[in-house]
Amino acid sequence: xxxxxxxxxxxxxxxxxxxxxxxxxxxxxxxxxxxxxxxxxxxxxxxxxxxxxxxxxxxxxxxxxxxxxxxxxxxxxxxxxxxxxxxxxxxxxxxxxxxxxxxxxxxxxxxxxxxxxxxxxxxxxxxxxxxxxxxxxxxxxxxxxxxxxxxxxxxxxxxxxxxxxxxxxxxxxxxxxxxxxxxxxxxxxxxxxxxxxxxxxxxxxxxxxxxxxxxxxxxxxxxxxxxxxxxxxxxxxxxxxxxxxxxxxxxxxxxxxxxxxxxxxxxxxxxxxxxxxxxxxxxxxxxxxxxxxxxxxxxxxxxxxxxxxxxxxxxxxxxxxxxxxxxxxxxxxxxxxxxxxxxxxxxxxxxxxxxxx
Length: 357
Ligand SMILES: *Cc1c(COP(=O)(O)O)cnc(C)c1O
Description:
Layout: E1 5-6, H1 16-24, H2 44-61, E2 67-72, H3 75-87, E3 92-97, H4 100-109, E4 114-120, E5 141-144, E6 146-147, E7 152-153, E8 165-168, E9 185-189, E10 200-205, H5 222-227, H6 237-252, H7 255-276, E11 281-282, E12 293-297, H8 301-313, E13 316-317, E14 328-331, H9 338-354
Parallel strand pairs: 1-13, 3-4, 3-5, 5-8, 8-9
Antiparallel strand pairs: 2-10, 6-7, 9-10, 11-12, 12-14
Helix pairs in contact: 1-6, 2-6, 3-4, 7-9
């Protein structure tokens, strides 16, 4: 069996060591005589896994005192509603419209209160991170730190003073070091950089809890979930366990700082090639380029399609760009090794030469 280099945007590659550990323990976890899938979420054996997962996450993410970590369900998309329900308090919120998911988040928030679009690059096809002007009286400011579809990333954390900063980090959580104390709330679907789909990681400052609208569904109340330690109802036990294995793996790699260094090297390898290529061209504004999702085109849709097809035949799969933008996208999350990026660049060179450039 040959594993491919999977450049999918999400669900995406997991570290081989993580999958091997899952395989080894699948029928019998430790001496429990059962799979993690079969354990009660209230059992001592599962709570040990759960508590270690929370502790390891706090460690790798560098979470200071005063924050709660939750493992919820419903993905980032559910958080698009959960955030305004819990934080808007009948007031208004600033949203920076930097991509498709950022836009979806603000459209959802409009159902619950006044949304101010503080900045937008929508009219320019989201090729860059927009300038923004923040409201002095917003209940929170919402950003998307990495724009998965367009391949852009904030090169700074916006200064919001006393106004809580809320970040959708679905596609770059744990890929670079963040100062968590600058954020009121961070959320991320786990399926890009951490675990299988079905786990939503939430980091929330404790003083922000308890302000939800009265009609907030119980499972979407961050206060109730925090009080119940994410177990108001049955959590995604197995997904959380795999997340825990990824956090252990990250620690073995030297933590997020070491991972960030490798991620910069991986991204630079691709961007340096793109900047010098006679056939391929990056589509994101150079200053705002993502380190996780590298978007590019040849300028010819048929050639793009041929590239995606031929790459797949070489074990470099899922390079097709998102259906709303076309072209190509190489998602190179933490679990994508440097060798995978090297193999991609080497095939791009081959393809370039074969197509007469
Ligand atoms: C993938 C993604 C989402 C959607 O996540 P779901 O878990 O499928 O709801 C939202 N925001 C960003 C930045 C993403 O990359």
